[in-house]
Amino acid sequence: MAKIRELCCFLLLAFAIAKVSEASSEIGVYELKRGNFSVKLTNYGATVVSVILPDRNGKLDDVVLGFDSVEDYKNDTTYFGAIVGRVANRIKGAQFTLNGKKYKLVPNEGKNMLHGGPKGFSDVIWHVQSYDKNSHVTFVYHSFDGEEGFPGDLHVSVTYMFFQTNKLVIKMTGRPLNKATPVNLASHSYWNLGGHSSGDVFSHQVQLFADKITPVDDELIPTGKILPVEGTPYDFLNIHEIKTRFHELPSGYDINYVLNYVGNEHFHKAAVVYESKSGRKMELWTNQPGLQFYTSNMLGTVKGKGGVTYNNYDGICLETQGFPDAVNHPDFPSQIVNPGEIYEHFMVYRFTAK
């Protein structure tokens, strides 16, 4: 936890000494680079375009799925690398009631809303507030009252930042200006630690620090129950390959895990992923209560970077988040943020290779 406290201090310092401050609405690509670790991002959807890491022998590979051009991201239906919101995941019936008023949202998955609607935060141009290629980039966006049906103006920001030699931090914030509103942002990167072009992820070993899930109906909407994973195919408390019990599921993993808290820690470990051929290992910490584990079951056939064709199960998403459809489940942790309050969502990745 001392390192996490050091991280928080580092974040505050970085915001104070940001070298570049601007308000650009042009679409660009911004690279962060530290040694042989580099990340490229675009302000279209505040999207992760590439993450390049060495394997155990020093060979570099891009370990996230994506596209070669920004134009491809504009036509994307996969949410490759994007920040999704105002409310990530699904909202049943594309509606909810807040303070006695019913809000009707814009559905984009049948009668439900997914990842903020037809034009959520993944499909807008964010402003570049600050950028230092050696340390960080911060994107900001003003979401207007009534956007996709949500109440109130909301100022949102996302900072991607290097920490130490092998850590990537994502900090997401939301500040309502005039009305209470739900806020639940998520980072939607598709990871393949063997390299984005290496095929399916069945041999990836995964550990999830969660002993419960929120089960869903046939529309992937939570039923409201919280059930233990022990003895089910959803049990990743001990690290094992994704393929171990994959055949017991109808189409793959796409479920919200209830993360375990230890004491009063602000940050808690959410996941470990290991790929044996490359030796790459990714660890993830967060301050959020949930994690959506998704094995790209509905990816289909997509032409990606370098002409590579991606197929179902070629990447995994580990989306730390509030619980899906929490606005319609009062027993779930609330996602309502009031004016004067600030929503904060941290993700800390650590990458190693042995």
Strand content: 35-45%
Overall average pLDDT:
93
CATH architecture: Distorted Sandwich
What share of residues is helical? Answer: under 10%
GO biological process, one term: galactose catabolic process via UDP-galactose, Leloir pathway
Catalytic activity: alpha-D-glucose = beta-D-glucose
GO molecular function: aldose 1-epimerase activity; carbohydrate binding
Organism: Vitis vinifera (Grape)
Overview of this structure, please?
The chain is mostly beta strands and 354 residues long. The chain is 6% helix and 40% strand. The protein has helices spanning 2-16, 70-74; strands at residues 21-24, 29-34, 37-42, 47-54, 60-62, 83-84, 90-91, 95-98, 101-104, 113-114, 127-132, 136-143, 154-163, 167-176, 181-182, 186-187, 205-208, 210-214, 227-228, 240-241, 254-259, 268-275, 280-286, 290-294, 302-303, 309-310, 317-321, 336-337, 343-353. The chain has a 10-stranded antiparallel beta sheet, with helices on one face. Strands 19-18-21-24-27 form a 5-stranded antiparallel beta sheet, with no helix packed on it. β3 and β4 form a beta hairpin. The longest helix is centred in the N-terminal third of the chain and has 15 residues, at 2-16. The two termini are 24 Å apart.
Main features:
single chain, 354 residues, mainly beta, ten-stranded antiparallel beta sheet, five-stranded antiparallel beta sheet, 29 strands, globular, aldose 1-epimerase activity
